[in-house]
Each structure stands twice: as C-alpha cells, then as structure tokens.
Amino acid sequence: MGIDPGLTRCGFSVVQAGRGRSVIPVAVGVARTPSTDDLTARLLGLSKAVNEWMDDYQPDVVAIERVFERGNVSTVIHTAHAVGVLVLAAAERGLDVQMYTPSEVKKAISGNGRADKKQMTAMITRILGLSEAPKPADAADALALAVCHCWRAPMLARQAAVAEQQAKQLAKQKEMIAAARANALAKES
C-alpha cells in the first residue's frame, strides 16, 4: 500500500508486485478532509479512511512519503499529524512501514530525483500501463510510493538478511572471546 500523506488530500494506492519489476495496480484513491473542520475531526476522518482501505485490501506493507520541511511550518506540522495517524493504523495491524523521501521515489520511478509532478504522473501511468493518468496528483504519488517500495523491497530484504547474519557472527565472536578469556583466567588460577 502506498500512501501520499496529507491532511486535506491523502493519496492511497494498493498494488501487487509481480515478477521482476512488474507491478499490477489494484486500487487508487484520495481521502479528503475539509480545511474548515477542526484538526481532531480531520484526523478522525483520515483515520477512518485509512482503516477502511486497510480493511478492504489487507496490505502486507505500507510505503509512506517521509515528512520533510517544505518551507511552511504549519503544513509540515499538519502533515506530521496525518503521518502519525497513518503509521498508527499500520502499527495496529502489525504491518511493516517503509518511509521514502520524495527524491528517493522520484529517482526510483523516473531516474531523476528532481522530476516534476507532470513527469512523475507520466512515468507512473506508463509503468503501470494505465489508460489514463491518475488524478489528482496525490493519487499518482501514492502509486509511485507503492511502486518504489515494490522495486526496493528485494534489496531491503537482502540488506536485512546480511545485517542479521553479521549480528549472528558478531555474537559468536563475542562468545568465543569470552570463552577464551575464561579459559585463560582458569589457567592462571
């Protein structure tokens, strides 16, 4: 599941990873909350929307855009509140959450970490073989996040396996050193 977080418009998408770089679109949409409502009502609305999506589609993992400073502190704070609600919904289901910066997603999808919205929408439309571009941009961004994760997941899994193996080797080395020290101390006694 890809999520482009936002308080006014939050993009949701669900894709299925195929073989290699093949990705199949399943669903895409946008949850909206009125800017005239108070923050608590808007967060509640967002919570209901993400929970409905998660209930309906049962994702295995959630890819969310990482909050970054856009120049407007108020926007960042509101987006951070939204991200908290979205991450909590995933955590309540025991889902893994992967966060990607906009430039990571742009680089993965278009090859250019500075691609604009138009380029990204065109690329995601082409990659997924859609007959028309997803609208609004939040929907296209949610799809891009999901595709980005599908493409990066194998590498992340390999990195996790390597880290786990290294941790086991380090623990074994520590055990061997401790045993050697204990043996040396016993010989000195």
Automatic annotation (TrEMBL):
Q: Which PROSITE patterns match?
A: RUVC
Question: What transmembrane ranges does the database entry give?
Answer: none
* Chief location category: cytoplasm
Where, in this chain's numbering, is Mg(2+) 2 bound? Answer: 65
Residues that hold Mg(2+) 1 according to the record: 4, 138
Q: Spell out the subcellular localization from the entry.
A: Cytoplasm
Q: Which family does it belong to?
A: Belongs to the RuvC family.
Stated name of the protein: Crossover junction endodeoxyribonuclease RuvC
Provenance organism: Corynebacterium spheniscorum
